[in-house]
């Protein structure tokens, strides 16, 4: 007996789901295996569960490509980068997957990128990756580069008259990346970054860090965080009566963050991809129709419209693989090294692919394909994200 789609997507065991339908030949020649790794449990499950739902929406949207079915084998990495790596090796060595998708959190995705390169199996991540040159030869991401998103935030700060900003972020690679990128953009805008406070994703209090920021009295504070753990700084700042402007990164755009942060995040400004405010986009935006299709597929599978950014990034990863697979020579058999290389090459030849979070064009040497069409600023008002001009 088949499982209900929601239960099927959220299971932590390996599973098969159906396929992509960009081309529809009369016969199906073979099976393209995709290894999906997502944090369905642990500290960043608030990202991982939407990722899984986005893949289910992708399955609803399409069903086969280039005469092949796409079969997903999904594993939970429990928000642990070491488990991400073990899952990747299992999917490659035991299941002979043709491509990997995953995972939530930069540390886990970087672990996948390393294994992807070593095993020469392409990776489509939905999380930022900081790779270049040969290190980026086998991996791409549907996420926007931190530079694009932080540049968008700093431009907003500058327009708002901010001259000093306090930073608080995770004590990991994402926190480092956000801080370094913020510094570069703020320096050009002549905005002083006057604090660099950090905390672990598993921490339950940032009282000490918040006190230091309040004491420094910056015009604004930005969190280099993601998901539910990203709410802590805003809760702590509100408790200490901080009255300045508050900003975030695209990593916090999900319902659990809004629920946990509550009133402390009212007025928060953050960059995100267009999918989050699809209904508010002008008709000419390249993501509007794709985002509408994604929303319809999400409703069909989950009986609710998407309200987060993460599920859309996963849907986009599905679309990247589908588009690339449609351009691989149909005579090349999936499950072979030749197919994995051909699929990798096709991914890096992706040009002007409209997705829910903008438009993607990949080129060898960088994992990123997004441009300025992939970033908008939103403001949290009464628990809803509102597009800013």
TrEMBL record:
Show which residues constitute the signal peptide. Answer: 1-29
State the InterPro entries in the record.
Answer: BCAA_transport, Leu-bd, Leu_Ile_Val-bd, Peripla_BP_I
Please give the PANTHER family that the UniProt record associates with this protein.
BLR7848 PROTEIN, LEUCINE-SPECIFIC-BINDING PROTEIN
Q: Where is the Leucine-binding protein domain?
A: 31-347
Query: Gene3D superfamilies under this entry?
Result: 3.40.50.2300
User: What is the official name of this protein in its record?
Assistant: Amino acid/amide ABC transporter substrate-binding protein, HAAT family
Q: Which GO terms describe its biological process?
A: amino acid transport
Instruction: Could you list this entry's UniProt keywords, alphabetically sorted.
Output: Amino-acid transport, Signal, Transport
The similarity annotation says: Belongs to the leucine-binding protein family.
CDD domains from the xrefs?
PBP1_ABC_RPA1789-like (cd06333)
